[in-house]
Write a structure and sequence with these properties.
336 residues, Isopropylmalate Dehydrogenase, 2 domains, 12-stranded mixed sheet, 13 helices, 41% helix
């Protein structure tokens, strides 16, 4: 039977809900059948959140795998005086250090995959974070250019890939190109085969405009940009359909016809994903030499420390990372 080593999880902003969700996930590891993972963060801070949950500082991922059954393994970055819900510069600095070390452990192969905790980008930028988000940071750690890393949001009932992410809605049309769409779909299709076991993924492409432009009557981006991209991909053998009207492609019958929806902008992708799979959504980075997932939510400072945060997305991110790592290990062993 193919096995992989433990995953590594960066703690995220220590004042947010990320650390407590990891603690609670470990606490329910048996009932949830979770694979071994280690947390990079402050062992003292995590122990303070954990209550009676045992926390053990470890020096390596190999050691983490050995003690996971008895204690939450933490690769310790030192003490931290911070309270839930009260972000600080020190907390942001620790979050950045945790992300950096966790990414390096995955890139080096010491960890079988990377799960990144939620961060506050503004706080990280104050301590030297120079990337739009964690996706780009991890891509850089892997030696991959930003355009080579594709964000996918995945849940039990839907997978979506936005072509543009954190750009103003007024700038979306100018940001789109046939080259952008074909490039990202190729990356997504390869990752869906390698990491999700779909030999020929079915890909549905959304239009940008209402009713997918109505043949140019409500915008011409479909005719000028999206249709040429779809036709090019079909000529290459991809199972691509579209452009489809965004308001009719996310009901149950439509979702049964595709494996991933390619969306033109952030909210076109994330609104249906969060409406359908809010408690189980996972952010997956496609196109990397490592497995990277993240729970699809933010730091939630307002409820940090209250026990109200759902651990569903954290559990889903851990499980998805482990599943992808196993598929890669299996594919690599067959190739060998």
């Amino acid at each position: 039977m193919i096995e992989v080593g433990p995953l590594v999880a960066s703690c995220g902003d220590p004042a947010g809900v990320g650390p407590e969700c990891l603690v609670r996930a470990w606490q329910q590891r048996g009932a949830l059948a979770l694979p071994p993972f280690a947390v990079v963060g402050s062992a003292a801070h995590l122990a303070g959140l954990a209550g009676t949950v045992p926390v053990h500082a470890v020096a390596s991922m190999e050691q983490a795998g050995r003690i996971f059954a008895e204690a939450l393994p933490v690769i310790d970055l030192g003490p931290l005086d911070i309270k839930p819900g009260q972000p600080s510069r020190k907390g942001a600095a620790l979050a950045l250090a945790a992300l950096d070390l966790a990414a390096n452990l995955a890139v080096s192969g010491e960890a079988s995959g990377l799960v990144t905790g939620p961060i506050a980008k503004a706080g990280l930028q104050d301590v030297g974070f120079a990337h739009p988000g964690q996706t780009e940071f991890v891509a850089a750690a892997c030696g991959i250019k930003p355009e080579g890393a594709v964000m996918m949001l995945a849940g039990p009932t839907l997978r979506v890939v936005p072509m543009t992410v954190h750009v103003p809605l007024a700038s979306v049309a100018d940001a789109l190109s046939a080259e952008l769409i074909t490039g990202r779909i190729r990356i997504a299709a390869a990752a869906l085969t390698r990491d999700f076991g779909l030999p020929r993924p079915r890909i549905a492409v959304a239009g940008l405009n209402p009713h997918a432009g109505e043949q140019g009557r409500i915008g011409t981006e479909e005719i000028e940009v999206i249709v040429p991209a779809v036709e090019q991909l079909r000529a290459e053998g991809y199972a691509v359909t579209g452009p489809m009207a965004g308001d009719t492609m996310f009901h149950a019958e439509a979702r049964a016809l595709y494996d991933v929806a390619i969306c033109m902008y952030h909210d076109q992708a994330l609104i249906p994903l969060k409406a359908l799979d809010f408690d189980h959504g996972v952010n997956v980075t496609l196109g990397l030499p490592i497995v990277r997932t993240s729970p699809d939510h933010g730091t939630a400072f307002g409820i940090a420390g209250t026990g109200q945060a759902s651990i569903g997305p954290t559990v889903a991110a851990i499980r998805m990372a482990a599943d992808c790592a196993l598929r890669r290990a299996g594919a690599d062993s067959l190739a060998a």
